[in-house]
């Protein structure tokens, strides 16, 4: 979910209680759309993250933030250092009940005059922004994202312009109060589910909070207001008022919802989300802690996706070319398969050469290569002699025979390259940290698929930056899964013993899986779980009945000169499984 007005209110309340009176010691900009403020207050140091990310905008006090800063600070970062560094935070508020936080900072300018600047953080999806203004006249000093008229005619964000708030939504502010009568009339007039009626008519309420209000009132989310009794709507109003009375008093219950079966974070809010029945909850006094835990993985995945867009595009273009090349090769090979017919025609022309005269366009002869001696019509070039026509067919035969051999070799090369690049794309999707991504980039640079940056220094062939995934089967066997080609080679060639079980999806890009057993017989249940992991960490993750080959590691070989992660194997068995995220999660938990 996105941060709604309710969550933003709790964040502003927490920031105000912890940071007001604090001094801004340092300012950094680790990402193009993210600012990090180092604040010292009451002998405590705080790291405040301000993000205007299009997909994950947020504001919070960080505990686990460890992004590296660029060697050269961006212009907006330098500007903030000039105006805010050394300044004192005097106030932090939510603007209205909107998703906007205003931080007021008092500092001295270069002439030693004291003035107040306002830092607005607008948390509005792709329109999110961080804007620095003068408090006195609301003049914009600059913003992390400039918005010229070509981007928005309605509202420009440019230096020297006057800052204006985004257009107000035609909704009721729940903090200003709403009478029972007005509440009931508003919901009854709405044509749609009652939960939608709540978040469509009241400011700062997300669908999640609207569902929670309905659930606490024992009312179906999808019921229509016009069909509800006055008592039902009165109970809804009571729950609604109770929640916002606590918000006004600064009483929050930050929580994060987790699906334990899948080991996944589902949702979060600053109030209890009791409608998530059957899920587990983690509560914390700090909404910042909840926000950080919710976004830490989500933000990383989005950042990796952004940073690899050029790389993925480049690989996809190469793959498209290879797919087209493969189609042409298959077409040419099909033609080459007809080589023997040209040999037969050449032999027949040789046998019946006495019947051929220059100027003939074709000749019909008995095909003595056919058991029925069927008639065959052979086309002739009227400008060639009988001997030249015969040689033409033999030349065509020899050419196609040679082409078939070459095409078979080229198709094998194309197939290997396609398999390799598809594995690379899968490895990018499986990245869990930036180190994994760097390993993939280094591999592509070495093989000539990507350009090397300046001062590029390759690591040793088998030096691992990160460790492969580790799981424990229900029978207690260790199962190792590679996350990229480098790890796949490391597992298969270095870690696996000859008697260990090696697994991989059949003809589908995926990870190498090793069941450590050292020759001990592996139970069927562990084999099934290993196959499940091989299928889950493959391109067949969303498919059913995925074929997984398995054999002892001693039957797996790496051909000389083959690309990373590429191996051949023999004497294998195949097991069919349907990947289940719940089972994978259980194995990881174990």
TrEMBL record:
Stated name of the protein: Rqc2 homolog RqcH
Q: How does it assemble?
A: Associates with stalled 50S ribosomal subunits. Binds to RqcP.
Q: What is the lineage of its organism?
A: Bacteria, Bacillati, Bacillota, Clostridia, Peptostreptococcales
Gene that this sequence comes from: rqcH
Tell me, in a sentence or two, what this protein's role is.
Key component of the ribosome quality control system (RQC), a ribosome-associated complex that mediates the extraction of incompletely synthesized nascent chains from stalled ribosomes and their subsequent degradation. RqcH recruits Ala-charged tRNA, and with RqcP directs the elongation of stalled nascent chains on 50S ribosomal subunits, leading to non-templated C-terminal alanine extensions (Ala tail). The Ala tail promotes nascent chain degradation. May add between 1 and at least 8 Ala residues. Binds to stalled 50S ribosomal subunits.
Which residues does UniProt call coiled coil?
397-424
Instruction: Give every NFACT RNA-binding domain span.
Output: 470-561
What InterPro entries does UniProt report for this protein, alphabetically?
NFACT_RNA-bd, RQC_Subunit_NEMF, RqcH_bacterial
Keywords attached to this Swiss-Prot or TrEMBL record, sorted alphabetically, are: Coiled coil, Protein biosynthesis, RNA-binding, rRNA-binding, tRNA-binding
Q: Which domain of life is it from?
A: Bacteria
Determine if Protein biosynthesis is one of this entry's keywords.
yes
| Family, as annotated | Belongs to the NEMF family.
HAMAP family in the record: RqcH_B
**Which Pfam family, giving just one, matches this sequence?**
NFACT-R_1
Give the originating organism: Intestinibacter bartlettii
């Amino acid at each position: 979910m996105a941060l709604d007005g309710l969550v933003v209110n709790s964040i502003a309340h927490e920031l105000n209680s912890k940071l007001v009176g604090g001094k801004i010691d340092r300012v950094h900009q680790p990402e193009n759309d993210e600012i990090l403020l180092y604040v010292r207050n009451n002998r405590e140091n705080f790291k405040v993250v301000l993000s205007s990310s299009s997909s994950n905008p947020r504001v919070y006090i960080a505990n686990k933030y460890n992004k590296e800063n660029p060697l050269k600070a961006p212009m907006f970062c330098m500007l903030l250092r000039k105006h805010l560094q050394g300044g004192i935070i005097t106030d932090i508020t939510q603007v209205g009940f909107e998703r906007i936080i205003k931080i007021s900072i008092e500092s001295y300018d270069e002439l030693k005059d004291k003035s107040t600047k306002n830092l607005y953080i607008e948390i509005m999806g792709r329109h999110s922004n961080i804007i620095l203004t003068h408090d006195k006249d609301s003049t914009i000093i600059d913003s992390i994202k400039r918005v010229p008229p070509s981007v928005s005619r309605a509202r420009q964000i440019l230096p020297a312009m006057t800052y204006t708030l985004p257009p107000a939504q035609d909704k009721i502010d729940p903090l200003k109060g709403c009478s029972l009568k007005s509440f009931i009339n508003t919901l009854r007039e709405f044509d749609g589910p009652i939960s939608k009626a709540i978040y469509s008519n009241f400011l700062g309420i997300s669908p999640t909070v609207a569902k929670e209000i309905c659930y606490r009132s024992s009312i179906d989310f999808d019921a229509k207001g016009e069909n509800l009794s006055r008592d039902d709507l009165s109970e809804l109003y009571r729950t609604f008022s109770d929640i916002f009375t606590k918000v006004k008093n600064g009483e929050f219950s930050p929580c994060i919802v987790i699906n334990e079966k899948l080991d996944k974070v589902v949702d979060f809010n600053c109030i209890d989300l009791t409608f998530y029945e059957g899920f587990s909850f983690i509560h914390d006094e700090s909404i910042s802690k909840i926000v950080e835990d919710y976004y830490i993985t989500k933000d990383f995945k989005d950042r990796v996706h952004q940073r690899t867009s050029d790389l993925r595009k480049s690989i996809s273009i190469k793959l498209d070319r290879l797919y087209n090349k493969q189609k042409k090769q298959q077409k040419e090979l099909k033609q080459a398969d007809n080589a023997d017919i040209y040999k037969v025609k050449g032999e027949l022309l040789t046998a019946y050469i006495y019947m051929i005269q220059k100027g003939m366009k074709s000749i019909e002869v008995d095909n003595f290569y056919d058991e029925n001696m069927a008639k065959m019509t052979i086309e002739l070039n009227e400008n060639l002699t009988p001997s030249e026509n015969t040689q033409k067919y033999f030349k065509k035969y020899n050419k196609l025979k040679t082409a078939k051999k070459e095409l078979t070799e080229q198709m094998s090369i194309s197939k290997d390259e396609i398999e390799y690049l598809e594995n690379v794309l899968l490895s990018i999707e499986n990245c869990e940290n930036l180190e994994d991504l760097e390993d993939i980039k280094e591999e592509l640079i070495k093989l000539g698929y990507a350009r090397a940056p300046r001062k590029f220094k390759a690591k040793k062939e088998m030096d691992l930056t990160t460790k492969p995934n580790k799981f424990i089967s229900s029978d207690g066997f260790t199962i190792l899964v590679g996350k990229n080609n480098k790890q796949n080679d490391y597992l298969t060639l270095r870690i696996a013993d000859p008697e260990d079980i090696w697994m991989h999806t059949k003809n589908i890009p995926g990870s190498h899986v090793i069941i450590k057993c050292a020759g001990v017989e592996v139970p069927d249940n562990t084999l099934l779980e290993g196959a499940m992991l091989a299928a889950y960490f493959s391109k067949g993750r969303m498919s059913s009945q995925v074929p997984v080959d398995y054999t002892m590691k001693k039957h797996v070989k790496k051909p000389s000169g083959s690309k990373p992660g590429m191996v051949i194997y023999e004497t294998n068995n195949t097991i069919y499984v349907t990947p289940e995220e719940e089972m994978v999660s259980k194995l990881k938990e174990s």
